[in-house]
Write a sequence for this structure.
């Protein structure tokens, strides 16, 4: 199984540096790229899909190199952050057209029907794209990306604009794809990654801060995440004094998750306890540190 | 894999916009019928209307390719960019010329007595070539069909209102009220083709380089 290798990839838009010396190895399965808005995720996705060329650095996959973009386009499937084309056209017809644009020669119709089934749009195949719901359009987006069985699938902000139910469905679909190919998603939503990816990297201001297994990424915040239980009165003052990540209420007791280098002031009913950090904790910790 | 075009699909994807040039032709034929034989009316009506609409398909062919959310996806497919650009504009321009020949043939046969087919085909055909290039270029420059249409309207209305004196260097209208002898047509026809070629070439080169995505 080939590995996608990025070495020292940089990109500037004029004077603005959008990506700085990004090196990564991405293996078979789901890979998540996590970062706040403006981190350079979309820029990296567009470089991977050959829409933009890197200002410097190299990208390779097996014996393919990104300096020959026409070859790369045969092995890439891409779903950008927004995808809403051909509103006048019916689902199946649009996909048949895209199959032609992609140059799928044999069994065009069969390939189209199989992706329609995969993304669960069989009931909508004769509906105009303009009439689909947001979640369906997103699934159609995946259908066009996976047409032609690309080896690398790139999905930018997979769940943007979806309601909670559609999100869960869409994540399930992504996870299925990750069993067959390399799937790279970029997102600012930690949950997207926790729910779908085995490995991830955190990008901030164009720089790669950390990458690895999502369980090991959590360890970055080891010893910095605390849990305290407080009464309603203390709840508000704790919120002001500490860096509270989340809170849960049971009866009149609030359980707070706090990010802190030192144990938080013992205002609670019980003394604060260290907890095993999640990816979200680690992400927030890194973003806090970087400002 | 090598991507292929599907021009019937492109036609459908334009929706109602695909039909506008046909409506224009129907209107022009009806107008010519109304003005039976009055070439002083018919020729200006044809010249100021028909070539401009050659830009129509050039513009709307690119709505899905540059303007709609996610149109960048098309550039990630293994189809060559010139096929998505120049090839499609060229094909639809040929259809437009065929449409023009049909229109002129009908007018020539049944609505006027003078021989108009060849001279008007040369005049309107070359002017249409110019406008197809204007549409292609303004779409590639502004990436918005709305702006491309504004350019078209501003160009045409200023040229027509000032009778081509505002920016004479890019005026391609002849403002003739009768059929010109072929020998008088070569000059203006060549000029339209020259300007048109510049626009087509520029649009083609810029299209290959589009790096700005919505
Ligand atoms: N075409 C462009 N021209 C100039 N700057 C750009 C362009 N595209 C993105 N940027 C800038 O590059 C940075 C990274 O953007 P982007 O890759 O879209 O980040 P993300 O997807 O993580 O939000 C941002 O500061 C953005 O303003
Ligand atoms: Mg983005």
């Amino acid at each position: 199984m080939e590995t996608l290798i990025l070495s020292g990839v940089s990109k500037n838009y004029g004077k603005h540096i959008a990506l700085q010396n990004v090196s990564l190895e991405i293996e078979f399965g789901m890979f998540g790229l996590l970062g706040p808005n403006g981190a350079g995720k979309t820029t990296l996705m567009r470089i991977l899909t050959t829409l933009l060329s890197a200002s410097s650095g190299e990208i390779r996959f097996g014996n393919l190199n990104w300096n020959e973009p026409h070859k790369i386009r045969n092995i890439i499937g891409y779903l950008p952050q927004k995808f809403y084309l051909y509103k006048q056209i019916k689902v199946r017809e649009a996909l048949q057209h895209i199959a032609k644009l992609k140059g799928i020669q044999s069994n065009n119709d069969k390939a189209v029907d199989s992706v329609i089934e995969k993304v669960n749009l069989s009931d909508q195949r004769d509906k105009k794209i303009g009439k689909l719901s947001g979640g369906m359009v997103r699934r159609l987006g995946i259908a066009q990306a996976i047409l032609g069985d690309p080896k690398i699938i790139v999905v930018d902000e997979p769940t943007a604009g979806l309601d909670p139910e559609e999100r869960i469905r869409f994540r399930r679909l992504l996870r299925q794809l990750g069993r067959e190919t390399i799937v790279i998603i970029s997102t600012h939503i930690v949950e997207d990654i926790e729910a779908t990816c085995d490995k991830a990297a955190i990008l901030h201001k164009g720089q790669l801060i950390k990458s690895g297994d999502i369980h090991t990424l959590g360890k970055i915040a080891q010893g910095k995440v605390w849990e305290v239980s407080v009464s309603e009165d203390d709840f508000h003052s704790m919120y002001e004094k500490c860096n509270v990540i989340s809170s849960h209420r049971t009866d009149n007791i609030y359980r707070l998750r706090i990010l802190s280098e030192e144990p938080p002031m013992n205002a609670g009913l019980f003394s604060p306890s260290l907890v095993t950090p999640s990816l979200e904790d680690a992400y927030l910790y890194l973003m806090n540190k970087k400002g | 894999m090598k991507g292929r075009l599907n021009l019937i699909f492109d036609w459908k994807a334009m929706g109602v916009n695909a039909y506008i040039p046909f409506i224009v032709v129907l209107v022009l034929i009806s107008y010519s019928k109304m003005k039976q034989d009055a070439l002083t009316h018919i020729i200006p009506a044809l010249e100021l209307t028909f070539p401009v609409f050659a830009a129509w398909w050039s513009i709307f062919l690119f709505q899905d390719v540059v303007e709609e959310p996610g149109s960048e996806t098309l550039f990630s497919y293994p189809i060559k960019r010139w096929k998505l650009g120049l090839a499609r504009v060229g094909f639809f321009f040929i259809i437009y010329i065929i449409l023009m020949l049909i229109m002129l043939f009908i007018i020539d046969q049944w609505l006027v007595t003078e021989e108009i087919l060849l001279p008007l085909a040369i005049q309107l055909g070359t002017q249409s070539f110019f406008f197809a290039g204007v549409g292609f270029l303004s779409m590639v420059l502004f990436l918005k069909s709305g702006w491309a249409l504004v350019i078209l309207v501003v160009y045409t209305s200023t040229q027509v209102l000032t009778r081509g004196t505002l920016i004479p260097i890019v005026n391609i209208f002849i403002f003739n009220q009768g059929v010109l002898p072929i020998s008088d047509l070569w000059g203006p026809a060549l000029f339209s083709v020259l300007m048109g070629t510049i626009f087509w070439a520029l649009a083609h080169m810029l299209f290959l380089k589009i790096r700005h995505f919505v």
